[in-house]
Amino acid sequence: MHKKLLNIKDVYDAKELAQYSAHLRFLQEVDKRTGYRTKQMLVSPIVDPSSGDLLGIIQLINNKAGVPFAPLIQDGIQELSQTLAEALRQHQRQQAPSAKSKYDFLVADGAISAAELELATRTAKRKGINVEEVLIDEFQVKAEALGKALSSFFKVPYEPYRSDRIKPAELLKNLRREYVESSHWIPIDETQEGWLF
Questions:
Q1: Which residues does 116 contact at the CB level (< 8 Å), separation at least 6?
Q2: Which of 118, 121, 99, 120 is nearest to 108 (CA)?
Q3: 3-state secondary structure string, 89-134?
Q4: Bridge partners of residue 2, in order along the sequence
Q5: Who has the most CB within 10 Å: 32, 72, 94, 105?
Q6: What DSSP line would sit under 57-71, residue for residue?
Q7: What dihedral do alpha carbons 166, 170, 171, 173 form, nearest 10°?
Q8: The pTM is what?
Q9: Does the pLDDT of residue 90 top 90, yes or no?
Q10: What pLDDT, on the 0 to 100 scale, is given for residue 92?
């Protein structure tokens, strides 16, 4: 919850747990089912250093000495957490699947789930409309998130709609209006920024 290391003397001591958080409780059912008695616990978050996202935790249970874990062990587990965070980040980068569709980035970015994307695609086919319309209207995907996904897939910068943009006649002269409207894109000439789409 707080992405901080916890060194708990007794997980059954409600007063001790309340010092960390009023909402912190120990799930005693596991001990009841197994007959094991958890007492001390050292918990360290594995946090992505660049994004601050929680990737997982390391949990040590019951110090053999029967006392809270020593500062040296706390330092060690924090170092291990940082090492694991970096290893997980590198592994995710290497394992990142190449986008199969222009909307996969929405799933990777957490805007929608894979199941929702599949449902949106089926809905668009059934209704005979564009997937973008379904994503925006029925799944409340923001236009900016959709633009980011398309930008990632097509490897071009995303330019949001601006009503004051001057439409370049030279770039539009060979495009039919119906094609541009059905494709939901238009070339732009951003000479100040050096972009030409």
A1: 139
A2: 99
A3: HHHHHHHCCCCCCCCHHHHHCCCCCHHHHHHHHHHHHHHCCCHHHH
A4: none
A5: 105
A6: EEEEE--TTSSPPPH
A7: 110
A8: 0.48
A9: no
A10: 73
